[in-house]
Design brief:
There is one protein chain. The chain is α+β, with helices and mostly antiparallel strands. The chain is 36% helix and 22% strand. Helix 5 runs parallel beside helix 7. The chain is globular, with a radius of gyration of 20 Å.
Length: 242
């Protein structure tokens, strides 16, 4: 589990900003790194602690300022490089595993030698499981109840038709995976809206994140019910429940 990775928040951590949320704790993100600044970032991260913070651009202005320093949203996911391969042309294929959520405190000024952005970060609350607050008994119950409800929704009724339902159920039924970790793993497959994904990243309370997922599943369930009423057996060949 990513929880065992130590993050030194006393030093600046490289920032890799993208248009949308790409990583949550516990998840693994494949990256194909080809820009000079991000190749340098990976090289320096590999020489240090292997940490990179996946950030999110603020608004749409980044499209005009991409090669500069466009504004970033405050919450990031710190990831650890768990696998990498350097290609003959100098590009990297990287697997980055999410470790914890953090907030950008202060971005460090650019230098001639460093092509990429970096910042001092602040972890969410008191470091505990995944860098966040440890849960009390009531919090654990909320998560267990949410896990059971998600399992029920994907096992029975309209959502059982989804292509992703069975793979996600395999995770949910694996009692060896803690509930706080399982909810991170299933969050992206069950949510498509980018605003919701940032909510999941920025929300400090694991119980609230579980409620966000449940609300999204409720909305998705209503959409699937409407689709079922339109007789999917008559859909053109090639359409599916993806």
């Amino acid at each position: 589990m990513a929880d065992s990775v130590h993050v030194n928040f006393g030093k600046p951590i490289p920032l890799f900003p993208l248009e949308s949320v790409a990583l949550l704790p516990q998840q693994v993100l494949p990256l194909h790194v080809f820009e000079p600044r991000y190749k340098q970032m990976v090289e320096q991260a590999l020489d240090a602690n292997g940490l990179i913070a996946m950030a999110v651009f603020e608004g749409e202005q980044w499209k005009q300022e991409y090669h500069g320093r466009p504004r970033l949203r405050p919450v990031v996911c710190v990831g650890h490089i768990v696998q990498h391969q350097k290609r003959p042309d100098g590009k990297y294929d990287v697997l980055l595993q999410g470790v914890c959520r953090a907030r950008i405190l202060k971005e460090v000024p650019p230098t001639e030698d460093r092509l990429f952005r970096a910042a001092y970060l602040e972890p969410f609350s008191v470091p505990g499981e995944g860098g966040e607050l440890s849960l009390d008994d009531s919090g654990e119950r909320r998560l267990r109840d949410a896990r059971a409800r998600i399992t029920e929704m994907l096992s029975e009724g309209p959502l059982s038709r989804l292509t992703v339902a069975e793979p996600i159920l395999e995770y949910l039924r694996n009692e060896e995976i803690p509930t706080h970790a399982i909810l991170e793993l299933v969050a992206f497959p069950l949510t498509q809206d980018q605003k919701v994904r940032y909510q999941l990243l920025a929300e400090e309370d694991a119980g609230e994140r579980a409620q966000i997922i449940l609300r999204e599943l409720g909305s998705l369930e209503r959409i699937v019910r409407m689709a079922v009423s339109q007789k999917p057996e008559d859909w053109p060949k090639g359409l599916s429940w993806n």
